[in-house]
Structures are given as C-alpha cells and as structure tokens.
C-alpha cells in the first residue's frame, strides 16, 4: 500500500531502527553519572549531538534535544521572547507557519504581547520586503519556516534572515519539513526540527540557539540539556534520530532529483487528466517530494476515503475533511481553492510504478465524487432573461455552495449577478477561487441574516 504522507510522518528509516535497538542495550543509563554505564551513555549522547549539529550547521553546544518538534518551537519562541523582553514584546511571523508557531503567538498575545502575521503571495511565499516591513523597534523575535508543511513552498529564509540581522532581530526558523534534505541557509538565530519528519523516531525534537542570542528558558529550571529541555533524555531515540538524519542526508541529493521528477509528473498529469483542478504552491522553489492540489466540486473527506480504499495514504488541508468547517489556514492565507484538497508527500524510495498507478486511479475517483454530489459536468446553459439570482446554500458544507453557484451562473445574462447565501467558512475562500478559475467577477461579501452573502457577476 503506497504511503504518500511523509510530510506528516516519515516511515522509520532502517538506520534509525538499527541505532535504536543498539542504543536500547548500550544507552539505558543516566548520562549524567560518572560510573561506567553513565559514561557510555554520555558518549552516545555527545556523539548524537555532534552528528545533529553538523547536519544543522551549528556548534554542538548550541543544540539541545527536546521531546518533540512542537516542544522545540514552544521553548524556542518563549525563551527568545523572554530573553529580549527589554527590547519589546512584539513577535513577527508569516501567515503560513505551523500551528505550533501560531499557538505560541496566541499565547504570547494572551499574556500581553503582540504579533504581526506577514501575508504571503499566492505561491505561499513571503515577500522579503513585506516581512522587513513587519519588523518594529519593539520586535523581540521573528519566525519563518524554511518550507511549508502543506504546499511545499520554500521560503526566502536567507533574504529574510539578512533583513532581520540588519534590524537586530533574531530569526527562528522552523526547519521540520526541510532539514532532512539539507541545512538551512542564511544567518538564522534559532532553529527547530522534528525527527519523525525525516525518518527518525517520534518524540525527538531539535532546538538550536546560536551563541550571542539572548535566551531565557521558561518554566521550572532543569539540569539537563542546558536547562532548555527539562527531563531525562530519551537517549535511544536521540541516538536513532541523529543516525537517521545523517543517513537521509547521505541519500538526499540523489533522491531529491528522482522525487522532484516524480512530483513534477504529478503536477503536470493531474492538471491534464483532472478537470477543474488547481495545483498550488510554487512550481519551482519547492520541496522535492511534496505536491498539493485542489479539485473543484469535490468533498475532500470522501476523496481521501476513496484513495485510501484504493491503497493510497494521502492527507488534506480541506475544510471538507474536518468538523470545524474551517479551511486550512495555509490555503486561506494563499487565497487558493481549498475544497477537494489533496497533499501528496513521497517518502524516499517511492516507486515510479506507484506514482503511475495513483495518476491512473485519481481522475476516475474525482469524477465519481463529483457525480455523487451532482456537480456540473458540461458547459453552462445559454443565458436566460433573469436579472439576478439568489442561491440558498445555508447549512450546507463545502463543496456544495460552489457547486450550486456553478449550476446557475449560466442562468443569468452577462453582467448580472448571482448571490450565494452560505454559512460555511470555506465559502469565503472557495467562491473567490472559483471566480478566478472560471474568469468570473467576485464582487464581494455582504452581511446576511444568517451567514454571509457572496456576490458573483457573470463576465462570460
């Protein structure tokens, strides 16, 4: 069964398994003790730290191991903000950061601080100039991921890091998605990552803090990991994480070329074989293994279930797959279609035949889902003499509001409007995206007794 969701968690690398089993026998003792077993454990911990630091591009004494990537993010942001509290309490971050960063920002605001979200372009990348514009005299910390976890777009970290350094603001980089492929370029100040993203065991994160960065760990003081990650080290998992990081780096160059070609094939073939689809993310400046696309008039949850039934494990940022009705904050920030969203992230070693079979199966499954939902399959009918129409889609989840809009747009003459009443949050994103795909005019959103009224003007 092809597993195509390595952006969530990569399969355990064989080297990680071997290192984990070996370390369970050799690294069970307390590395802080001076007797033989403790010294042996300390040697394993020091070797793992040196290997991880080499991969990150920092000094070993600048890196600590945490219990997860999320813990590393929370500790890194809290410690940097506290260490620079005399400068101010403002935090800058991109609008497409991982939820761990957004949750830290929300907690910071609740405690009396403030933050600014830098918008992104439709590709998912920030404009360095726009990011620089968000830096203020009281900015204590800036955050920017190295590559997006949902659409694969690489961020201009080196450019933003230079601008932050010029402004005297440390930059924290969440490198969870990219570290297995190579080090992060630029003059970053703090970096976080998570081992299960590159094939290491779950429950190991990395936090690197450059020398000279003011940092004050929060919470009760601990004696281990420079006081930045309290608790007894999970030494076998740490050893496995460091060993697998070195192993995947050795394979990364060749696999990046191969997987980039497979992803390029997915990007092109999906656009050719599946009508009404939007492939999102930067087509060039992207991770080699990840591609995301959204299918108009499709219930994302149903599509994922159908793909799973045919043997493919993929994920989605579509609001159709959640009970909250909220589209992915990443897709929302990009302003792209969210319904029928599919994220494919290929693990190292993915067979070309599996990708070909996925591309053979996908178009038929999309067509089946659309047929069940009654989506339009032909050109809209000739215009009738109707000045305007109102479509009541209240209480109906995505993609139904857009489907109902598509069904009636041809019933009004060119220049007339269709108003869609909807209380599904995804409609706020998907109706404008549909207008762009269909070359119709999105007039805007108006208040309504329930939900919102989305006005669309027919142009053709």
Descriptive account of the structure:
- This protein has 460 residues and is an alpha/beta fold.
- It is 38% helix and 16% strand.
- The strands form 3 sheets. Strands 1-7-6-5-4-2-3 form a 7-stranded mixed β-sheet, with helices on both faces. Strands 11-12-14-13 form a 4-stranded mixed β-sheet, with helices on one face.
- Helix 4 links the parallel strand 2 and strand 3.
- Helix 2 packs parallel to helix 7.
What's the short story on this structure?
With 460 residues, the protein is an alpha/beta fold. The chain is built from 12 helices and 14 strands.
Shape field = globular
Strand tally is 14
Distance between the termini: 45 Å
Q: Major sheet: order of its strands?
A: 1-7-6-5-4-2-3
User: What is the element string, with H for helices and E for strands?
Assistant: HHEHEHEHEHEEEHEEHHEHEHEHEE
Task: Tell me the strand percentage band.
Answer: 15-25%
| H/I helix tally | 12
Estimated helix fraction: 25-40%
Q: Could you give a short account of the major beta sheet?
A: 7 strands, mixed
- Low-confidence region ranges: 378-384
Structural class: alpha/beta
Radius of gyration: 24 Å
- What is the averaged pLDDT score? 92
Give the tags.
alpha/beta, globular, seven-stranded mixed sheet, 460 residues, 38% helix, 12 helices, 14 strands, four-stranded mixed sheet
Topology record:
Layout: H1 14-26, H2 36-56, E1 63-66, H3 69-83, E2 90-94, H4 99-110, E3 114-118, H5 128-134, E4 139-143, H6 157-167, E5 171-174, E6 190-194, E7 205-209, H7 235-273, E8 277-280, E9 290-295, H8 300-309, H9 329-334, E10 341-345, H10 352-373, E11 388-392, H11 400-408, E12 417-422, H12 427-438, E13 441-447, E14 452-457
